[in-house]
Amino acid sequence: MGKDNLDELFGRLQGSFNLEEPQDGHQDRFLEKLNQSKGVTSLPTKKSNWWKPLSVAASVVLLCLIGVQVFSSKPSIKEQVVEIAPEVSKTEFYFANLIEEQVQQLKNEKSPETAQLVDDTLVQLEKLESDYESLEQELVNGGNSKIILNAMITNFQTRIDLLKEVLDNIDNIKNIKSYYDENTTI
Length: 186
Known about the structure:
It is a single chain. Helix 4 (77-84) packs across helix 6 and helix 5 packs parallel to helix 7. The model has no long low-confidence stretch (mean pLDDT 80). With 186 residues, this protein is mainly α. The chain is built from seven helices and no strands. The termini are far apart.
């Protein structure tokens, strides 16, 4: 058959070609019928795989949300304060260590005679700490940095003075107690 014969054949059949798409599952039905005619039993095929694309889409959405959360996270107040005034972190580190040592010493000195004094001091220290945190927030919000930095240092000094005074009072209470214990005869 030559090229002319093929052109002539396709020319005659033009317009009579079936251009429609087969219905969903056509191939599966065809293969099932073919296997039945040969006597081969086929394994049941999965009818719907809608969960696979859905799980992929959910994974993509989850990754996007995590990425947005990680990359748009706001720096903490401490980090913002360090950006505004880098010397604050060094000063805070020094004072915080000193205060922590004295607080530990204060807790070690707690006895029945000094329990109320120690507990009241710890409450006052918590109030001073919350004042310090509000000063940090004011500094981040754009307050007058010199005044706020001075107030922050004063806050640390107040805590240290309070601890020193309370520790001195505890020593006085111990001395008075030991003096009365020595002078008491049985």
